[in-house]
Design brief:
This protein has 15 helices and 21 strands. By secondary structure, it is α/β, with parallel strands linked by helices. It folds into three domains: 3-130 and 231-488, TIM Barrel; 131-209, Oligo-1,6-glucosidase, Domain 2 (Oligo-1,6-glucosidase, domain 2, Alpha-Beta Complex); 499-577, Immunoglobulin-like (Sandwich). The strands form five sheets. The protein has an eight-stranded parallel beta sheet, covered by helices on one side. Strands 14-15-16-21-18 form a five-stranded antiparallel beta sheet. The longest helix is centred in the middle third of the chain and has 18 residues, at 228-245. The termini are far apart.
Length: 579
């Protein structure tokens, strides 16, 4: 989908919320623990290898829980750990009820959950709700000629498709690697059940059938959301969540959460689906959470999610902060010549502030917006010309002082780089550079594994051991220790809490420095950010109180309404006393 179409779809979705049917409204109460939550995202194949096969696993994660806790983290999100075909990094699920053998067993996952809980850490899994692998038993049985089997209508089958889609299939098969192409909606399978099925992404990812918001009478395969198949699938998803909730899982991040119901441009039916899921969860598992990959917070949170992301697609703004044109994601999108967190000092915050302010106002008190440091689908902060520890500290100050629930992507706390030009691994394409092994210590495998370097899931690049936990742990001034201090500050300062107020104080037309206020009752903090390489200053008349610095990198002064910031600097101040 091109960006124009995506933005149009998001606009329509936002307008539709005001006209949702009775009962589809935002939930006003999330579990209390989210108010102080700080998440750590782990790509399991790349975190810690305990059995010397070059691939990370669950016992490996368990062995590093003390490190995770030391970051000030109290919740983790694991990318998919279910039995998979591994064509798309675990997002082609074969069995939702079984841990993939590469990671261990269901027992290993329960042990990880119990060990995490003993340290005060919540554990959330990744739920790929929209599709499975073609190797799933559900799909295999659904493909049979008998239409009366349990899984018969879990997928979308048809004997004919529009001519334009036949052309898409033909063009896909002319590509060098047709199985890796995302072109078109349908796959020609010639199964006993039917000739074609609808896919979600790759050919090996058949779309699950949650029904169609507006079924086309000329397309008999388009079932309404109330049909037996789509309703049975909803029950199956609740069964999956129950299965893992009962084992101690604290929540799910839902992949492609907005895409489940087909032909639903205003997102009314998919919003109703998630509201139904939220009501069920509140009744039986009230302390668990639902996190959406929707990237449209006010729509997602109105639909019933506790957290939604502001990331590289959907509601715009994130890209203008971090994706310069000379970086892979900036080059792909071609939005901006410069990004805000760039030494050039030529970036802008207008788009981010406009979009974020709207989403923040619409969701405050109803749910949380998450602005992650990165994730498995896009580049890390350490990329191209943003490569010094001081630059990364300024970015981390932003991530850990904004409202909402923070998510640190594994390794960003030590400045792991996005590695350019790596080969595709299990469908990763250019995402490989963000999925490299965690770097624990110096050496050829960076302490990730005792396997030989050529066996590693992906290569490491520690920059001669500097980008490792070993090199930064306990070292004053390191990015790791700076991140720990920020996390501690967030947990202990009410004004920096996840639900505390946020207000931009600086002028969007003078983007450097960026100055905003966080407040909770009588406590007020001021955050100043200058990612540019130039000395900057501004006058903000409302800043007349006395301030005490809580944390800083680089030299920043705040006195009598004047802010002065050295190049590449950031600081957090607290109001010390009234004038």
């Amino acid at each position: 989908m091109n960006i124009t179409s995506l933005l149009k779809q998001n606009f329509v979705a936002v307008m539709a919320v005001a006209f949702l049917p009775a009962g589809v409204v935002a939930q006003d109460k999330s579990p209390q623990w989210l108010e102080n939550a700080l998440f750590y995202q782990i790509y399991p194949s790349s975190f810690m290898d305990s059995n010397a096969d070059g691939i990370g696993d669950l016992p490996g994660i368990s062995s590093k829980l003390d490190y995770i806790k030391s970051l000030g983290v109290n919740a983790i999100w694991l990318n998919p750990v279910f039995h998979s075909g591994w064509f798309d990094g675990g997002y082609d699920v074969i069995d939702f009820y079984k841990v993939d053998p590469r990671f261990g067993t269901n027992t290993d996952l329960v042990c990880l959950i119990n060990e995490a809980h003993s340290r005060g850490i919540k554990v959330c899994l990744d739920l790929v709700a929209g599709h499975t692998s073609v190797n799933s038993q559900w799909f295999i049985e659904s493909a049979q000629a008998d239409h009366n089997q349990r899984y018969s209508d879990y997928y979308i089958w048809m004997d004919d498709v529009p001519e334009v889609e036949k052309k898409e299939i033909e063009l896909r098969h002319q590509e060098a690697h047709p199985e890796s192409s995302t072109r078109g909606r349908y796959v020609e399978a010639n199964k006993p059940r039917a000739r074609y099925y609808e896919k979600n992404f790759f050919e090996c990812q058949p779309a699950l059938n949650y029904g169609f918001a507006y079924p086309d009478p000329s397309h008999p395969w388009e079932q309404p959301v109330t049909a037996p198949g789509p309703q049975a699938l909803r029950r199956e998803m609740r069964n999956i969540m129950s299965f893992w909730f009962d084992k101690g899982v604290d929540g799910f991040r839902v992949d492609m959460a907005a895409s489940l119901v087909k032909n639903d441009p205003d997102k009314v039916e998919v919003s109703k689906l998630w509201h139904e899921m939220r009501e069920w969860k509140e009744r039986y598992y009230p302390e668990t959470v639902l996190i959406s990959e929707w990237a449209n917070p006010k729509v997602a949170i109105s639909a019933g999610f506790d957290i939604d992301f502001m990331i590289h697609f959907g509601v715009k703004g994130y890209a203008s902060l971090f994706f310069a044109r000379d970086t892979p994601w900036g080059a792909n999108k071609s939005y901006y010549d410069y990004c805000y967190f760039d030494r050039s000092g030529k970036g802008s915050i207008s788009e981010f502030v406009e979009n974020y302010s709207r989403e923040y106002a619409a969701t405050k008190g109803k749910g949380y917006i998450a602005i992650p440091t990165a994730n498995h689908d896009f580049q890390r902060p350490h990329v191209a010309d943003r490569h010094t520890m001081e630059q990364l500290k300024v970015a981390m100050t932003f991530f850990l002082t904004m409202p909402g629930v923070p998510f640190i992507y594994y390794g960003d706390e030590i400045g792991m780089k996005y590695q350019v030009g790596l080969p595709s691994k299990e469908g990763s394409n250019n995402r490989s550079g963000s999925r490299t092994p965690m770097q624990w210590s110096k050496g050829e495998t960076a302490g990730f594994s005792t396997a030989s370097p050529e066996q590693l899931y992906l290569p490491v690049d520690t920059e001669e051991g500097t980008l490792t936990v070993e090199a930064q742990d306990g070292v004053e001034g390191s990015l790791l220790e700076f991140t720990r201090r920020l996390a501690t500050l967030r947990h202990t300062t009410k004004a920096l809490g996840n639900g505390a107020e946020w207000r931009l104080l600086s002028d969007v037309h003078q983007p450097y420095p960026m100055v905003y206020e966080r407040s909770d009752g009588k406590e007020r903090c001021i955050v100043v950010l200058n990612p540019s390489g130039k000395q900057v200053s501004s006058v903000i008349p409302v800043l007349r109180e006395k301030y005490k610095s809580l944390l800083h990198t680089g030299k920043i002064s705040l006195h009598n309404g004047k802010v002065s910031a050295a190049g590449v600097s950031a600081a957090v101040f607290i109001v010390d006393s009234l004038p």
